[in-house]
Each structure stands twice: as structure tokens, then as C-alpha cells.
Amino acid sequence: SKTTHDRMLAQLAQCEFAVTKSQLGSEMMAAEQKSYETLSKILENGIEVAKDTIEKSKAELAQAKTVRKNRIEYDVLAKVISEQPDRKETLERLESLKVELSNLEATKQQLESKLSLRKKQFHVLVTSIHQLQALLDEPDDVEFSDDVE
């Protein structure tokens, strides 16, 4: 009976050991599961942060592209504008050209008047020459006949 009792105690000790071992294994697995859940939450948070960072970076990139495009357009326009004379110079040049045009028109008018006068004078001269020529071509006896009478 003592051997039976010892065997039972040994079996009981083995059972207690198996239960303790199972409990420790269960606690360890629970701790590992909790650790994995914590790690999973950390990774999910990291993924969310990375997604947010990527979205912000995309927005910044789009804005930078827009700024770059605008800067290039501005530089092109600034180059075109800088190649043009400024407004003050242009207005001064325009005023100078208007004065010059006015002077040229006045000169043209004077020259046209002078030409018209010269044409009239030339016409009078030609008419006078024709009249003189006609007088010279008249027979001389007409003159003598006037003297005789």
C-alpha cells in the first residue's frame, strides 16, 4: 500500500507538474499574444503615420510643382517684359514721333503749296512765252501799217 501510495503521490506530482507546466505555457502564450498585439498596434500606427506622411509629401510635391511651373512662367514673362522698353520711354518715343509726323505734315503742306505756286507761275510763264512767240510770229507789216496810218 505504501508503494501504491508513493506511486499515486508520484502521479499526483506529475499531474501537478503537468498542470503547472501548462499554466506557465498558457501564461507565456498569453504574454506573447499580448506582445504581438502591442507590436501589431505599433505597426498599424506606424503604417498610418507613413500613409499620412506620404499624403502630405504628395500634397507638398504637387504644390512644389505648381510653384515651379508658376516660377518658370513668371521668368518667361519677365524676360519678355524686360526685352520691351519701359512705358515712359515708349510714351516719350511716341510723343517724339507724333511731333516729327506733325512737322513732316507741315513741311509737306508747305512744299505742296510751293509746288502749286510754282505750277501756276510756270503756267503763267509758258502762257507768256506763247503770247510773246505769237507776237513775234505776227507779220511785221501789221506793225508798219499801224505806223503808216
From TrEMBL:
Main subcellular location of this protein, as a coarse class: nucleus
UniProt keyword terms in alphabetical order: Coiled coil, Nucleus
Record GO biological process: mRNA processing
TM stretches of this protein: none
Listed GO CC annotations: THO complex part of transcription export complex
Subcellular location, record wording: Nucleus
Superkingdom of this protein's organism: Eukaryota
Pfam families, sorted: THOC7
Coiled-coil region: 47-121
Protein name (Swiss-Prot/TrEMBL): Ngg1 interacting factor 3 like 1 binding protein 1
Source species taxonomy: Eukaryota, Metazoa, Ecdysozoa, Arthropoda, Hexapoda
